[in-house]
Design a protein that fits this description.
GO molecular function: iron ion binding; L-ascorbic acid binding; procollagen-proline 4-dioxygenase activity
Mean pLDDT: 89
Organism: Acidovorax cavernicola
Bound molecules: 2-oxoglutaric acid, fe (ii) ion
Helix content: 10-25%
Low-confidence stretches: 1-8, 12-16
Keywords: Dioxygenase, Iron, Metal-binding, Oxidoreductase, Vitamin C
Pfam families: 2OG-FeII_Oxy_3
Strand content: 25-35%
Radius of gyration: 21 Å
Largest sheet: 9 strands, antiparallel
Number of strands: 17
Protein name: 2-oxoglutarate-dependent dioxygenase
Number of helices: 6
Shape: globular
Order of helices and strands: HHHEEEHEEEEHEEHEEEEEEEE
Length: 287
């Protein structure tokens, strides 16, 4: 009988002799986001799959997941680890959401490292520009009232160390990352909701993506804690990430399209200052 697939439950069916490609696809997708096999088995039998078939499907060679349009940065969350070893440090896993793809991490930087990054960036701050897709150049933008600067990739030992951690954490080559950007928001400063990918309909985008391809993921690292305000918000997911020193929020987008629901912004700082470091990840080498 025909059956429909959703991402949250296996296909319903009567007793079936063998696992369909759809079922194997669903298993692969669930594993990718970290669901354990025991949980999958329960879900499959509850949905009407014969237990022997369900077990066989779980034992079959893993299927390549076809859902993402392009390979994406993604942390290894299979088995639901509480932390990920990034070489010189254990990064804590605090929250994981599938659609939009958002993962919250803790302790990617120590307090001392956050302070050192702020100190290195502070003398180089200037009013933030945004990439202007109309021309491919950069411009001052009223939607973005922070001050910022870019580090060259590998510019300082601390920057290099952080880039290596990010590469391990998100399984994405260091070479595909843009230089780390540090932003400071004073009281009232904000970054209105936007997408980080480059709009394919804008004439300047072709020029921009010649170097490294599209952006496919973003990691925002919180370097301090504003006294009030300054959350990173995802309006379409009703999600608000409160800045905590050393934490980082990751999100990815498999195509440059609003359907990824990765619209996000930095809410106005109400009191104090907000410092973040942003790492944008490209599809290919960003040289
Ligand atoms: O300030 C924030 O929380 C968001 C920053 C952001 O969207 C970006 O740097 O692309
Ligand atoms: Fe952004």
């Amino acid at each position: 009988m025909p059956h429909s697939m959703t991402s949250s439950s296996p296909a319903q069916g009567h007793v079936v002799a063998s696992a369909s490609p759809q079922l194997r696809q669903w298993i692969a997708e669930q594993r990718r986001i970290g669901v354990l096999d025991a949980t999958l088995l329960t879900a499959m039998t509850a949905a009407g799959w014969n237990e022997a078939v369900a077990r066989a499907a779980l034992q079959a060679p893993p299927m390549v997941v076809a859902t993402p349009k392009v390979p994406l940065p993604e942390p290894a969350l299979v088995g639901e680890p509480g932390a990920i070893d990034v070489g010189d440090r254990e990064v804590r896993v605090l929250m994981s959401m599938k659609g939009p793809r958002v993962v919250l991490f803790g302790q990617i930087l120590s307090d001392a490292e956050c302070a050192a990054l702020i100190a290195a960036a502070r003398p180089r701050l200037a009013r933030s520009l945004t990439v202007e897709t109309a021309s491919g150049g950069e411009e001052i933008n009223a939607d973005r009232t922070s001050d910022g600067m870019f580090f060259q990739r590998g510019e300082l030992p601390l920057v290099q160390l952080l880039e290596a951690r990010i590469a391990r954490l998100l399984n994405w080559p260091v070479e595909n990352g843009e230089g780390l950007q540090v932003l400071r928001y004073g009281p009232g400063a904000e970054y209105k909701p936007h997408h980080d990918y480059f709009d394919p309909d804008e004439p300047g985008t072709a020029t921009i993506v010649r170097r490294g391809g599209q952006r496919v993921g973003t990691l925002i690292i919180y370097l301090n804690e504003p006294a009030q305000g300054g959350a990173t918000v995802f309006p379409e997911a009703s999600l608000q990430v409160v800045p905590q020193r050393g934490h980082a929020v990751f999100f990815s987008y498999d195509q440059p399209d609003p359907s990824t629901r990765t619209l996000h912004g930095g809410a106005p700082v109400i009191a104090g200052e907000k410092w973040i470091a942003t790492k944008w990840l490209r599809q290919g080498r960003f040289d």
